[in-house]
Amino acid sequence: MKKLNLITFMSLSLLAFLFMSNVGGRANIAGQGATGAPTEGTCGNNGCHDDGQFTPGLELSLVDADGNDVAEYFPGTEYFLNVVNTATGASAYGFQVTSLNGDDDYFGDWEALSANTQVTDLTNRTYFEHAGASTNNAVSAKWSNAEVSAGNITFYASSVAINANGNPNGDGTALATLEVPIGVLSNKNLAEEIELVLSPNPTSGFLNVTMDGQFESIEVLNILGKKMLSSKSQQIDLSAFANGTYLVKVILKDNKIATKKILKI
Fold first, then answer.
1. How confident is the model at residue 225 (pLDDT cuts 50, 70, 90)?
2. 140 close to 84: Cβ distance less than 8 angstroms
């Protein structure tokens, strides 16, 4: 009987440790998504931050650089996703967010802004999530994108409100989604307006970027919208890049953005 009790105690201790270890981020620590997105579970399963004294509310909003809510997004543009978790009396909060296109494939590039947050890359998806239990119930991240063909984007998010009693019992969870359609007008036509030329295209090494007008910077993004390089020069060395399709993003002096594809061979 003593041996059985010892095994039970050790098993419960291990479970408690695993639950508590996710305080460093579910994707970062456990290698799992828990946003409620297709093929994913949540943090509200039985025995994991389930039915407690809190009934959190979770709100998502996508805003532009001026803080205005946007009803649609434009390719090659940076936005900010705000995540607000409300639960009266909670001691701390946690969250996780990912962004998928209409085919449920990951799309976009995250940059953590708020303290105690991080961006975690897994095999198929990337997550913006907490890096530790936080007393701050509102966090934000920069979200950018590249491909025009991505279509509508859906943000999937989960949050937890905890009582900090050392185990998941008595906590509360919430889920939220935010679908943002692609803008009717695209900045793709701006590339023609400023006569943006990438040469040679395809390229195996240096890429020359010419245009009619002044620019602030030039960025190279992969097809998921993740920034791979930023430069102030109109000659860019792509020799170290893997072969494939990339997007060259030109940020103009008036904050307008022009984009064009490049093939690295």
1. low
2. no
